[in-house]
Amino acid sequence: WYGTLMENGARTEAADALLFIWQGRWPMNRAPRVSGISLNGQPPNGSVKAAAGETLEALVAVQDPEKDALTYRWIVRPESQATEVGGDAEVVPEPVPNLIASTPGAKVQVLMPDKPGAYRLFVDVVDSLGGVGHANIPFYVRAGD
Q1: What pTM does this model have?
Q2: Alpha-carbon distance 67 to 9, whole Å?
């Protein structure tokens, strides 16, 4: 069930698809559909690397079936060090503050953290009725050049 509902109970596209499978109908208002995310033009498997303090551009591709107004929430977290398996609860790393360097939208400027290491950029795209699309992309920060 991972990814079907957000932590706050908001519906995702996966929840909408399950409703369709189980009941043969889509919900009256479907969640936004995220079809891709990139950082400096690279996809999630692109091994994105940047220098501490550098600014990169993030872009999320999203469609809302009803063309609802969308709100974007971008955050950066250190890469999880959790080793739990099988659905065990794990501690979520705290966000690194003040790294989204532009007004949140489908495209944002992301300031790379000062501390070298592995990180992940997350985006939640929320429609006006609480449906959520989400994506994330890993990146690595090397010491300043």
Answers
A1: 0.91
A2: 22
Rounded distance between C-alpha atoms, residue 16 and residue 19, angstroms:
5
Q: pLDDT tens digits, residue range 6-56?
A: 888 889 999 999 999 999 999 999 999 999 999 999 999 989 999 999 999
Q: Is residue 126 scored above 60 in pLDDT?
A: yes
Name the pairing type of β-strands 117-127 and 132-142: antiparallel
Q: How far apart are the first and last CA of the chain?
A: 43
| Residues paired with residue 71 on neighbouring β-strands, in sequence order | 126
State whether residue 14 is helix, strand or coil: helix
Q: For residue 141, which of 122, 120, 113, 121 has the smallest C-alpha distance?
A: 113
**Angstrom distance (rounded) from CA 68 to CA 51:** 37
**CB of 119 closer than 8 Å to CB of 78:** yes
Q: How many Cβ atoms from other residues are within 10 Å of residue 135's Cβ?
A: 19
Question: In this structure, what DSSP letter does residue 93 have?
Answer: P
